[in-house]
Every structure is written in C-alpha cells, then in structure tokens.
TrEMBL record:
PANTHER family, alphabetized: AMP-BINDING DOMAIN-CONTAINING PROTEIN-RELATED, LONG-CHAIN-FATTY-ACID--COA LIGASE
Listed name of the protein: Uncharacterized protein
Domain AMP-dependent synthetase/ligase span(s) in chain numbering: 1-61
Cellular component GO terms held in the UniProt record: peroxisome
Residue stretches making up the AMP-binding enzyme C-terminal domain: 114-187
SUPFAM superfamilies referenced in this protein's UniProt entry, alphabetically: Acetyl-CoA synthetase-like (SSF56801)
Protein location: Peroxisome
Keywords: Ligase, Peroxisome
Amino acid sequence: MTEVASFATGCIVTQDWKSLCIGKVLPFFEVKVVDPSSGQLLGTDEPGEICLRSPTTMIGYANNSAATSSMIDAEGWVHTGDYGYYDSQGLIYLTDRIKDLIKTKSSFQVQPSELEDLLLQHPHVAEAVVIGVCQDDFEEMPRAFVVLEPKLPSNLRSSAVYRVPDFKQLTGGVWVVEEIPKNSTGKPMKRQLKAGQVTQLASCC
C-alpha cells in the first residue's frame, strides 16, 4: 500500500504454497493483528486488522489530520484496513477488507471470502461474490451473487455454504447473474452489487 512506501512482506512461492498467504514481514517492518472493534492485540491464528510499523511509513496525509489519525495511531502503527492473521511460522494471510465484513445480528461478523470459497466448491458455480445487504441500521444479511456454469441446474442446496452456523447463512438470498461487474484489475465491484446495479437472472437455493 502507498502509505507504507515499500513492500512490507515477501515470500518465495513453492508448489505447496497456501492460498491467501502473502509471506513473512520483511526487515525494518513490524506487524501485529488487532481486534478491529476494540483494538485488543490478537495472537496466532486469530483474525483481525493487520497493522504495520516501519521507518519507511508515511508521516501523514498532507493537510488532513483527521485522515492521518484514522490511519496511523499514536504509536506509529499503520492500520491497513486488511483483515487477516499470522500462523505459528510467522506467515501472514489476507482474507478480506474490513470494510467488506458483514455485520450480522448479535454483533457477529462474517467474512465474505469464507462463504465465497464454500460456494466455489460447488461444481455448478463458476464465480461467486458475497456482500452484506442492510436489514436495518445495525444489521446486514449475507447475499451471494453467483455465475453458474453453462447448462447446469441452479440448485445449490447441497453446497457446503448451507452447513455454516445460522448467523453466516445467506439470509439475503442467492442471486444468479450473467456476470459479476469487475474493475480494470479484475476485482469485483461490490459497490455496484450493493447498489443493485446488476440484473438478476434467477434466485436459487
């Protein structure tokens, strides 16, 4: 990210490299993971916000002290907005962006990537994106947008995604769409999905 002014992690990709792993922190960098709500320091395999500190990180945003204080805390840690964890070997994994986490009832948070991975295990699903849709001012429901393989039925009831705990269920529905809107780098444009700027071909369960 631009705010740290250089690469913060590095790795040598091998045949058994794990998905979502971005390697280990490089020299002159420190990393920690904190609870995004409380700021509590988390340990091994506990997901939270990834924070970085280094002499190379920016001092702040020009003429914008509010943005600076929201990004960099009093101890000089840059709050990246990335959600992930580190394992016992010191390898760091990125799973989601904090802004994409779905806040369901009872203050539970759902990682969209977890449900997307489960949907993609189904042989009929070619693409999947999960977002949170507003239920009221404080709660969201997970909704999936899927592109199905051609000429295959749309029954996803056998998918592992339906065996997750109740608060992770796709209570916002599963929309079948012709395509998922993406930006120039190939990333799904979740804002368009939230705004309903996509044509629903069918719903499935």
